[in-house]
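Hi C.,

You asked whether I'd gotten around to modeling the 182-residue construct. I have! Everything is below, sequence then structure, no commentary in between.
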Amino acid sequence: MTNTTKNMSTEETDIKYMKEAIRQAKKAAEAGEVPIGCVIVYNGIRDKGDRKKFSDKTKTEFMGKVIGRGYNRRNTDKSTLSHAEITAIKKASKKLDDWRLEGATMYVTLEPCQMCAGAIMQARMDRVVIGCMNPKAGCAGSILNILEMDGFNHKVEVTRGVCEDECSRVLTDFFKEMRSRK
């Protein structure tokens, strides 16, 4: 971890990185996309046997740093798969040269859908920090809770409501603007 991150509380760290995710969401809005943003931060492996994993150099090189960023690009890419979370997972996996993202925390402005929650589980992410909930399509507690569901071989620690008002406002402002254009 960087010295700045080391001295910060978990709450302060969560706010810092959620602000990064909000910046990604605003990029989506500028592109005319639904403003959802995401960043993934590498925090190190909690000694789980550290299978082949990364060299010590790699661990320290990425410790406490953003390893993946993404924002919603479904219309731009004309792809159902172009969600912020999927883009960030792809970038983080490429950076770490591994599909497993153990030791990583995802910060996302809106509660993940079923596809993204599934991808988070498959990536073996340790933790997800959510800005605002999605009562119409959320699968981290609103409709389903895939991330913490019993029966799967992996569970993800979830923190909800970080910068909730700001995350919600970005979405509300976007849709208000879209309606005013019609």
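If it helps when you're writing up: The chain has a mean pLDDT of 91.

Thanks,
B.
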